[in-house]
Amino acid sequence: MSEKNRFLPYLREDRLPHIFCPGCGNGAIINAFLAAMEKAEMDFDNIAMVSGIGCSSRIPGYLKCDSLHTTHGRALSFATGLKTANKDLDVVVFTGDGDAASIGGNHLIHAARRNINLTVICINNNIYGMTGGQISPTSPKGSFGTTAPYGNLDSPFKLAELVAAAGASYSARWTTVQIENLVLSIKAGLKNKGFSFIEVATQCPTYFGRKNKLKTATAMAAVMKANTVFKSAADRMSARELEGKIVVGEFANIQKDEFTENLERISVEKSGKKTLINSAYSTEL
Amino acid sequence: MIGDFKLIIIDENLCKGCHLCLFMCYKNVYAISPEVNKKGVQLPFVKFEERCTKCGTCEVACPDQAITVDLPENWWMNEDVNFNPLFTRHGK
């Protein structure tokens, strides 16, 4: 056994230590993704990563693979184009809660409706961490932020349920505390043919924690662990009991028609060998 | 600080001192060092090595890729095995 961390060969070591705050969950999600990728026996060179804007979207910059850092909220649009142009790539999207739920909300539900073969890892830290602690669409009711000094009055989005209802073939929610389940879930998402959405609730001690009297990463992780309810238990609980709880588990795991395969089938049906997708580049490919 | 053994290695250059390893470890192997290093970080260190079951949770849960556990080669590659095979085999 070497004395080197087993995730370091996949990372750009000259960029380390990374920019994330002490205790931020993003680093653990890098590890969980790499462990899941090893478990799923995928080719790291065949993976293309797409990200938008935000703390979580800096993750592809630390990984030694092809990556695309795009405009705010449009990571899924770029990923859809990338996957349609070259359907042999394994496209993984790292996105935050402000990126996926707020400005890119329509892109998220329509990518789920089309059921295109992407793996989306949505890192939900309940706040806009990069810009200074504004309230995001997934902030729990009553939580404090820079833009909510008297507490957040709105109900949060439930992203995993939303994407499952929009028609994705795999949707799950886990937290960084249940790291083994998260690894298995990302593995299932990578192997699944269709839109796979994994929402990961993480801790943000710098902004969410400081505004909500949970200053250390350990305090945030302990509160997250105490507030976690598994889906099978949550089905038997009332809405009043579930207030402020994080429901974890798989919300959708079904088989459906996939977007790029439908496109391939119809192009072969209508145009034969001269396919609609890559006819201009057929000599190069 | 780390000691003579090499079961768990903590990279002092990468650790930022979030102490999540203390929270995540099921067997309470780690402890916080009272000294502060040159970055102003109170590093964790391995205090109770004999308690370690090599589950590898701290290695995955460390956000800064600072912890290395001496695991058997690629046990996590086995299909549907999420636990350390040594853990069940020896009944430790």
**Neighbour order of strands in the largest sheet of chain A:** 2-1-3-4-8-7-10-9
CATH topology of chain A: Rossmann fold
The chain pair with the largest interface is:
A-B, 39 and 32 residues
Tally of distinct domains of chain A? 1
* Spatial sequence of strands, sheet with the most strands of chain B: 1-4
Distance between the termini of chain B: 27 Å
Overview of the structural elements:
The complex is a heterodimer of chains A (285) and B (92). Chain A has 285 residues and is an alpha/beta fold. In chain A, 34% of the residues lie in helices and 17% in strands. Chain A has one domain: 3-Layer(aba) Sandwich (Rossmann fold), CATH 3.40.50.970. In chain A, strands 2-1-3-4-8-7-10-9 form an 8-stranded mixed sheet, with helices on both faces. A two-stranded antiparallel sheet of chain A has the order 5-6. In chain A, strand 9, helix 9 and strand 10 (246-253) form a beta-alpha-beta unit. The longest helix of chain A has 14 residues, at 26-39. Chain B has a single domain, classed as Alpha-Beta Plaits (2-Layer Sandwich), CATH 3.30.70. The radius of gyration of chain B is 14 Å and the shape is globular. The mean pLDDT of chain B is 78. Chain B has 3 helices and 4 strands. In chain B, the strands form 2 sheets. Chain B has a two-stranded antiparallel ribbon with strand order 1-4. In chain B, strands 2-3 form a two-stranded antiparallel sheet. The interface between A and B is large, with 39 and 32 residues.
